[in-house]
Amino acid sequence: MLAPKVSQIGRARKMDRRNFLSGSTSAALAASWTPGHSLMHSVIAETGQTMANSTGFGEAVGHHRFGVNYTPSHNWWFCWNDWNVDPIKRDLDAIATLGADHLRLMLIWPFFQPNLTWVSGAHLEQLSQLLGLMAERKLDALITVFTGQLSGWYFLPPFNKPDPAIFTDPEIWKAQELLIRELAHTMSQHTNIIGFDFGNEMNTCWHAETAVGDAWMTKMFRLMNDAYPSGIHVNGVDHHPWFEPATFSARALAANPFPVIHAYPYWSEALKYGGPMDPPSTRILSAFAALVRSYAGDAKKPVWAGEFNTCIEALSEKQQAQWLETAVTSAIESGVSWFSYWDSHDVDRKFAFNSLEYSLGLLTNVGKVKEQGRVFKQLADTYRGKPVKFSTAAPPPPPAVQSFDQTWKWLLEFLEWKPSGA
User: Fold this and answer.
1) What is the mean pLDDT of residues 60-68?
2) For an engineered disulfide with 267, which of 18, 40, 100, 193 has Cβ 3.0 to 4.6 Å away?
3) Which sign, positive or negative, has the C-alpha torsion 227, 137, 67, 199?
4) CB 69 within 8 A of CB 341
5) CA gyration radius, the chain
6) pLDDT-derived band of residue 32, with 50, 70 and 90 as boundaries?
7) For residue 95, what are the CA distances in angstroms to 183, 262, 327, 343, 377?
8) pLDDT value, residue 422
9) Does residue 337 have a pLDDT over 60?
10) Nearest 5°: phi and psi at 75?
11) Got the DSSP string for 243-299?
């Protein structure tokens, strides 16, 4: 994907989704945890550590969780600028009924921080309201901060500069730090916080050499841990950095305490190697997790499926539900810890989006539970809170050459799958 031109700074710009979207003490803590009152707060209150370094981290990521990427049914994420809590309450009620225990929330960066030196108090208050409503329904929150691209549109801050300034410019760093600390202050007033996600696939709208991206990532994790030490913080990139050099290196991402995968058969080109119900698609979560552990050199590295769906528009609800059941069951068997489905609700057709966005939800835009929503609830009810069964086998070495072709060769070998005609 081409980097945004300078003339496009600060305005929403359409893109194609992906290229368009796009011990006894710890056991007792885990046993007493319920969504809506974060285990992280309990651990940090007792130890004073950052969450990633605490004894409770292993307990938190060692038990399965199920959530969704929240897409507001009423006015999408434009609702930050047209605030109405009534439809949001209905959304949250419906999501909780599906058995979700957490939501990934998208903060549109220029809405929250329209100036280098100022963060919108009104938007912080709305976030606080949303967190409170979620807590009432026992839903925890992952706060996605530097969201400059979402569902096929760019939302770049007015102070954006040509690449790689987002990762190198001192003035922009000060703005980033201001936003993180203001958000942390708001988050500290609530107990249902998981932590920060850097952004919605930052590598899709800002680019840098991997050495530059990795250095910024290390610095940002340090800031987030300082500003909000009780959180589990992640960098939710798309599949590209795992397949080829793309802003952040695979080894640096895998070295983080809780690596995140975004796995879509369509966008990752799994359909080149089989149909929607063949292993390259149905076991994509398992294969991606194995790739992460290969780069980490750790068979027990916890992995979070932070986004997943087929993004195959031709599938029926029944087929999508079948894929969901197979993909998650396989991932459970492979020791994937947490699952956050994309997404909660279909986008309202009154908005101009890629047509795929109108059918990705577990719920229709008016809140009707779809077939995949029913399967999601069955999976969540069956596995939520159960211990993760990590592999004991040493992971194979990662691809010798990091490229799409070589990475897929590695994945197919892991899956023991030979495409027809190969």
Assistant:
1) 97
2) 18
3) negative
4) yes
5) 20
6) very low
7) 24, 21, 21, 10, 10
8) 63
9) yes
10) 65, 25
11) HS-BSB-HHHHHHSSS-EEEE-TTTTTGGGGS-TTSHHHHTHHHHHHHHHHHHHT-T
The pLDDT-based confidence of 36 (bands split at 50, 70, 90) is low
CA–CA separation, 224 and 269 (whole Å):
34
Provide the pLDDT for residue 25: 35
Q: How far apart are CA 59 and CA 67, in angstroms?
A: 18
Q: Do 198 and 236 form a contact (C-beta atoms < 8 A)?
A: yes
- The pLDDT > 90 percentage for the chain reads 84
Rounded-to-integer distance, Cα 325 and Cα 309, Å: 11
249/240 Cα distance (integer angstroms): 10
Among 107, 67, 112, residue whose Cα is nearest residue 200? 107
Return mean pLDDT, the chain: 90
pLDDT of residue 37 exceeding 70: no
Neighbour-count burial of 392, counting CB atoms closer than 10 A to its CB (0-12 exposed, 13-18 middle, 19+ buried): exposed
Helix 24-32, helix 39-47: angle, nearest 10:
140
| Structure-block tokens of residue 377 | 């609830």
Cα separation, 323 vs 329, whole angstroms: 10
Mean pLDDT within 244-254: 98
Which residue from 367, 377, 375, 374 is spatially nearest to 89, judged by alpha carbons?
A: 367
In one-letter notation, the amino acid at residue 108 is I
**pLDDT higher than threshold 80 for residue 380:** yes
Would you state the pLDDT for residue 38?
A: 53
Q: At what angle do helices 284-296 and 317-333 cross, to 10 degrees?
A: 30
